[in-house]
Amino acid sequence: MLEGIEGRFLDLLSKTLRFRYRLKTAPDGEPGKMNKNGSWTGLIGMLQRKEIDMALNFLCPTEERTKVVDFTDSYEVDYVKFLVDKPGAVPLKLSLLYPFNSETWICIFLIMVIGPKVLILMFRLKVSYMKLFLQLLGSFLNQAFTIPLLGTRNRIIFFSWCLFAMLVSMYYSSTLLSFLTFPLQKAPLKNFTELSEAVGEGTHRCFTLKGSFALTVFHSSPHEPLRNLGRAIEDNGWFFDKHDNFGSLRKILKKTAVMDIRLKLELLHNSLHFDSYIMSDENLISLNFAIALRKDFCCKESLNSVISAVTSAGIYTKFEREEIFKVFLKEGLLHKTVNSAELKIDDLYGVFILLIVGYGVSLVVVISEIVYFSYIEKCKTLLF
Asked: Which residue numbers delimit the Ionotropic glutamate receptor L-glutamate and glycine-binding domain (predicted)?
């Protein structure tokens, strides 16, 4: 008994129609594409030369193929997508800046710079700008005000500021903790336009099945990014054939997208570290799968009647789910998930940088004060 989705499907057809079969594979491992001289490669070429009676390996009928071979009714519809590795977590070296976006940081900075001056002018506070600035800055760290507040109006204003500082501090602390616990992930490639740009920049590759119909879609596409992606695949020879197993495909999945039908990609995805890879949101094209037959094949109607019964009963869908689950049990459970709660030095890199910068600024201020007051004392000595 054959294994795999298509193998079990063929075995079911043979038992139902009571025919025997002998398996043959295409020497070039391709589904079939037309050469310049009109001949075909792969399985379609074998049918054209009448070396085999029927062929099935997720073959889709096209206008060119129907001129040389015949097809049964469709038994499945699927979509062409791509599977790519996730880019990983955002570096934590600047994690102190991640809780807020750039616009929020700019607003907080402007409030901190302008706020003390506005308060001094509006309420005629008898305090220096720098002292009030440090007091407002300290409120973000839950430090109490030491400036005497006279009048109800002043107390209300500073109470509003304390409430603002407390909320900002709470939002910042909780968001930063979430980033350290579950690091922020870089945005993965989600559609073919982004994939084309990544391939053009040289950061990614894109492999597809040798002789895939997707290349025809790329070349005839009105969108330039898709045409560029198709040319890049052909120029670099980024192909795999149907004989490649999951192990060989796993070796190339580093900064590399694998483009194929959704079903095959799900099988591959379930054999990998599931959280480390993602499937594209966008579908390139939908494909109907059918069994390819010789032009003079005698039993097409019998095949169509059985195919209709199999698809209506959901048996083919059952084969798909069972095979995906088998791959998950065989491959997916072998990968151990390692959870580490330790914080490394890289995770606290930004904290140490902030500490060093703070010490550096303090040292500069101290030296400046020493030089300044020494200069003032010398000036006084010269005057007297």
From this structure: 2-49
